[in-house]
C-alpha cells in the first residue's frame, strides 16, 4: 500500500508508533483522544469507474474516548499497536486467531476482545489509518491452502533463507502453496500463456490430472472458494508484472459470480485494499447460464436466495454490462444453476478437450 526506502517491516513499525504518538500528543494537549476512519458501511462504498474497483467514499466516523464504548475501542487499539510493534521488532508473526486469544493475557481487562470479529476489524482499522497491510504487520490468517500449478519459476523468501521453486517440476500434485505474503515472492522465469483461477478443488484436480497446465501453458490458481487476500494479491501481480491474461472459472451460480467479482473488482469488505488486490481486467470463463442450455448440463433449481442474489447482481455496478445482464436474465428465466463438475456428465475429458478450448478460443485467450 505504501512505498519507502525503508523495509516494509520498518515502515509498518514506524507508522504504528506514529499512531500511538498521536494518542499521546492528544493527551498531552489536553484533548480527548480520537481516531478517524472511513465510515465502513455499504452506503459509503463507491465503485470507481476509472479503476474498476470498490473504494471507500468521503464519509468518515470518529472513534473518541469521550464515551465508555469509544474509550474501550481506543484502549484495545493502543494495546494492539504495542503488540504489533513488538512483534515486528522481534521479527515474529502471529495469526488473527492468536491475536484474539493473546488479548486475554493483557493486564487491562477492558482491552480484551469479546470475539474474533472484533479483533479482525481492529486490524483492518489499523491497516486503513496506517496505510500498511496486515501482512506487513506480520499478521497471518489461518491457512487458506490455495495453490499454484504451472510453468512458473520463482524465488521465495523463507525463515530458512531463499529457495527457488518451479511450480510444476519441484512440487507434487498438490502444487505450490501460496504464502501469506506473496510480495516476498520474486518471479524468475515462466512459460505461461495465461492464468486460470479455478473455484473448486475438484475441478483444479481434474485440470491437473488431464495435463491442462502442460497442454496450454496455463498457470492454474486454485481459489479454494472465496479467495483469500494472498490469492488475489498474487493473481494481480501475475497480471501486472508478467502481463498475463487472467481468466476465472467457477460454478454457474450467483455466489460464484461474486467470487469472480472479488478477483476482478475487489470486495466491499476489503475496499481499502482494492488497488492492491483486484485485477480489473480478469475475465469470466464459466460456467455460464448459456452453457447450461447449450450443453444440457445437470442442474439444481435456483433457491429463493439464489434468485434474490441474481436480482441484486443486476443492480451491482460490477455486473452492469450487456454480457452479464444477458447471462443473469437467462439464468432467472431457466431457473437453474450448475456446478463445474456437471461438465463430467459428458465425460471426464470433456472440460479439457472441448469446453475450455472452445471458450478460451471464443475469448481470444488461446
TrEMBL record:
Residues the record marks as active site: 101
GO BP terms: DNA replication; DNA topological change
Sequence ranges assigned to domain Type II DNA topoisomerase VI subunit A all-beta in this UniProt record: 142-191
Domain Spo11/DNA topoisomerase VI subunit A N-terminal intervals: 72-138
UniProt keywords, alphabetically: ATP-binding, DNA-binding, Isomerase, Magnesium, Metal-binding, Nucleotide-binding, Topoisomerase
Catalysed reaction equations from the record: ATP-dependent breakage, passage and rejoining of double-stranded DNA
A single GO molecular function term of this UniProt record: ATP binding
Record keyword DNA-binding present: yes
GO CC terms in record: chromosome
Gene3D superfamilies, per the entry: 3.40.1360.10, Winged helix-like DNA-binding domain superfamily/Winged helix DNA-binding domain
Subunit annotation: Homodimer. Heterotetramer of two Top6A and two Top6B chains.
Role noted for this protein: Relaxes both positive and negative superturns and exhibits a strong decatenase activity.
Protein name (database record): Type 2 DNA topoisomerase 6 subunit A
Gene: top6A
Amino acid at each position: 500500500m505504501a512505498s519507502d526506502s525503508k523495509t516494509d517491516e520498518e515502515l509498518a513499525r514506524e507508522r504504528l508508533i506514529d499512531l500511538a504518538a498521536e494518542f499521546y500528543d492528544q493527551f498531552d494537549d489536553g484533548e480527548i483522544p480520537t481516531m478517524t476512519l472511513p465510515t465502513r458501511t455499504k452506503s459509503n462504498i463507491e465503485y470507481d469507474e476509472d479503476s474498476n474497483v470498490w473504494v471507500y467514499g468521503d464519509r468518515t466516523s470518529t472513534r473518541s474516548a469521550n464515551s465508555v464504548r469509544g474509550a474501550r475501542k481506543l484502549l484495545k487499539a493502543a494495546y494492539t499497536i504495542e503488540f504489533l510493534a513488538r512483534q515486528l521488532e522481534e521479527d515474529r508473526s502471529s495469526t488473527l486467531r492468536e491475536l484474539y486469544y493473546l488479548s486475554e493475557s493483557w493486564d487491562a481487562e477492558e482491552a480484551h476482545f469479546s470475539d474474533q470479529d472484533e479483533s479482525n476489524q481492529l486490524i483492518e482499522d489499523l491497516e486503513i489509518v496506517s496505510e500498511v497491510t496486515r501482512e506487513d504487520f506480520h499478521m497471518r490468517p489461518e491457512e487458506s491452502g490455495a495453490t499454484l500449478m504451472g510453468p512458473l519459476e520463482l524465488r521465495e523468501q523463507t525463515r530458512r533463507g531463499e529457495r527457488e521453486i518451479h511450480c510444476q517440476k519441484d512440487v507434487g500434485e498438490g502444487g505450490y502453496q501460496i504464502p501469506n505474503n506473496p510480495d516476498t515472492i520474486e518471479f524468475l522465469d515462466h512459460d505461461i500463456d495465461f492464468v486460470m483461477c479455478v473455484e473448486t478443488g475438484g475441478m483444479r484436480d481434474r485440470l491437473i490430472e488431464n495435463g491442462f497446465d502442460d497442454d496450454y501453458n496455463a498457470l492454474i490458481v486454485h481459489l479454494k472458494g472465496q479467495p483469500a487476500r494472498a490469492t488475489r494479491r498474487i493473481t494481480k501481480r501475475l497480471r501486472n508484472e508478467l502481463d498475463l491474461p487472467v481468466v476465472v472459472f467457477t460454478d454457474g451460480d450467483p455466489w460464484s459470480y461474486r467470487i469472480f467479482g472479488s478477483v476482478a473488482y475487489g470486495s466491499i469488505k476489503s475496499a481499502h485494499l482494492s488497488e492492491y488486490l483486484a485485477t480489473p481486467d480478469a475475465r469470466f470463463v464459466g460456467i455460464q447460464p448459456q452453457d447450461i442450455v447449450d450443453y444440457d448440463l445437470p442442474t439444481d433449481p435456483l433457491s429463493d436466495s439464489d434468485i434474490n442474489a441474481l436480482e441484486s447482481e443486476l443492480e451491482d455496478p460490477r455486473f452492469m454490462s450487456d454480457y452479464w445482464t444477458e447471462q443473469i436474465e437467462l439464468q432467472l428465466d431457466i431457473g437453474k444453476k450448475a456446478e463445474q463438475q456437471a461438465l463430467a456428465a459428458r465425460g471426464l475429458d470433456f472440460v479439457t478437450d472441448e469446453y475450455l478450448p472452445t471458450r478460451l478460443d471464443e475469448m481470444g485467450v488461446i
